[in-house]
Amino acid sequence: MFRYACVKGGVDNDTLNLIDAGSTDDMIAAFRAGQGDYIHLQGPAPQQLQADGIGCVVGRVGDWVGACAFSSLASTPEWLAGETAGAFMRAFRQAREWVNEAPPQEVAASELSYFPGVPVEILADTIGAYQALGCWSSQVEIIPEELAVTVEVFRQAGIVTGPVDPTHVTVSPPG
């Protein structure tokens, strides 16, 4: 996603000295040890680095990437055809709407147990940033425009090399 955002922002990836430090924890450890001038992480990791005085949040990759079908749900066709799928999707839509509209502090307090060691203030700041990007709208369908962006993100990373037929990777969710 970082490479795609760079291209969208007019940066030639070939001019960058990108470091593959491994897992997210390894990346954070390397950055804390002084390896690299910048780092791309999902929240709340960058906000925690800023709070610790290690770095500064200077931008959001999402501003350049735009809407995409990045964090998607997957299921079997059998599950989709069952009764549970519709109820699950209705609850999922409601949860997304709440997460997008509730005060960040309230959302952070409800999710804090999933982020051990992260102070509620940092998580609330992170959630506010994601809300500002519009990450959690109540729309759960993967629409063609967002799928096209996602395909280009993975194409830029060298993961997708050929054409992608949307009918092979998306379905209309029930409920």
Short description:
The protein is an all-alpha fold and about 180 residues long. It is about 50% helix and about 0% strand.
Describe this structure in words.
This protein has one domain (2-157). 52% of the residues lie in helices and 0% in strands. The protein has helices at 2-8, 24-32, 45-51, 61-65, 77-81, 83-101, 104-111, 120-133, 144-156, 166-169. Helix 1 packs across helix 9. The chain is globular. The model has no long low-confidence stretch (mean pLDDT 92).
What are the SSEs and their pairings?
Elements: H1 2-8, H2 24-32, H3 45-51, H4 61-65, H5 77-81, H6 83-101, H7 104-111, H8 120-133, H9 144-156, H10 166-169
Helix pairs in contact: 1-9, 7-8
